[in-house]
Amino acid sequence: MPIYEYKCEKCGKEFEVFQGISDPAVTSCRFCKGSVRKQVSLSSFQLKGSGWYVTDYGGKKPSEQHQDQSSSEADTKTSSPETKSDD
After folding, report:
1. What's the rounded Cα separation, in Å, for the pair 26 and 44?
2. CA distance 9 to 52
3. Beta partners for residue 4, in sequence order
4. Integer distance in angstroms from the first to the last C-alpha of the chain?
5. What's the sign of the alpha-carbon dihedral 8, 13, 14, 17?
6. Threshold 0.85, pTM exceeds
7. I want to staple 29 with a disulfide (CB 3.0 to 4.6 A). Which of 5, 34, 37, 46 is the partner?
8. How far is residue 51's CA from residue 33's CA, in Å, rounded to a whole number?
């Protein structure tokens, strides 16, 4: 649920409200009942790393990814462990 910020035009206090997108906007201050104005705030969404889309999703189709996984599983099942001989 989104968090919206409001500022009272009468007392100047700022407050946050958890609201659904379809909920009606807040029209009065919770402290003094004055009129409020919705504030524009920064998003808290942040991507970290070196291009998550490119490295994880870019250019690979689901069928290619599935084939890559199944072939690597087959390789591990058919390969035998290497034994070291003491000569």
Report:
1. 22
2. 42
3. 17
4. 69
5. negative
6. no
7. 34
8. 47
